């Protein structure tokens, strides 16, 4: 997977789970300092309820495996100092009425993962260049304690840190998948 990271990338958010069917994972932030990659943050995480996939489909409850850019952010709450373009919108990011209390703050902060989306658009833009059947709307967002429909969740402290640290000038990417596929 490291071979897929663009040469000009200086920030990598690595997301990995223990195995391909696990919803439990870890998010680790690496930043390139000189010629060396330094680990600068780490948080517990959750990914798709059914784990990981290399062929993500709409509603498969798995997170896509791959290397994706990170260009846009937003949320219900005001910008906490994001370097990524941040769009606050309490209606577009509001949890839907059928969600329980555990999910009502999921989208207080989000970072769009550029999987099947148009860079530079709001995270909530539903344009799907690869087609609707390939899913989309894959985000880093606040953790609610269990697996997701395909997103990756991070505790609030981690989201605030990522939003304040990820810098478009450093070309951040997310490298995500289960440990076995990330080693390949």
TrEMBL record:
Lineage: superkingdom: Bacteria
One Pfam short name: YkuD
Domain (L,D-TPase catalytic) ranges: 27-175
UniProt xrefs under InterPro entries: LD_TPept_cat_dom (IPR005490)
The name this protein goes by in its record: L,D-TPase catalytic domain-containing protein
Originating species: Streptomyces siamensis
Top-level taxonomy: Bacteria, Bacillati, Actinomycetota, Actinomycetes, Kitasatosporales
